[in-house]
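Changelog note: in this version the structure field was regenerated for every chain. One regenerated record is shown below for reference.
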Amino acid sequence: MNTPVIKIPKPARAPRRRRSSLGFLLRGTYRLLVAGLQERLAIHGVSHSEFLTLYLLHFHGALSPGELTTRLEVTKPAGTVVLKRLSTAQLILVTQSEADSRKSVITLTPQGASVIEAVLEEANDLEKNMLGGFAPAERDELFRLLSKLIDHQRESLPASSRKPPAKARP
């Protein structure tokens, strides 16, 4: 004798609450931004860490390997791996410093400058798309508030952690 199987419907799932934690919101936003950016970077054969390195060289000019790793907040071995890949791809040039022959200086090659300019255009488009639901005044307010948050957090760090990276010396 077969007993009829009675399916009991699962209770309706409660609607997801919006995350109210600053950390989750910032992390979620960052992950979405980086995921979109990585898709665009792949077209140019550049990783996220390589993009950041090219970005720094584009906006700050020549930097030493130590200055780059400090600004990227990565270990020297990790920075060395990125620099080797960029050098092999002929996107950067590593030369001896004219001021101090014991030091190296890293600069963008013309090919590296072309890649970063193309990627920056795409990164700007991505940012515009992400912020498309905001009115111009809301975008300005978002940037103002995030900048204020960063400045406030930097002020609360010990003085040794607040120092800006050293200026580039070719």
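Spot check on this record: Residues 22-43 form the longest helix (22 residues). Residues 165-170 have pLDDT under 50 and may be disordered.
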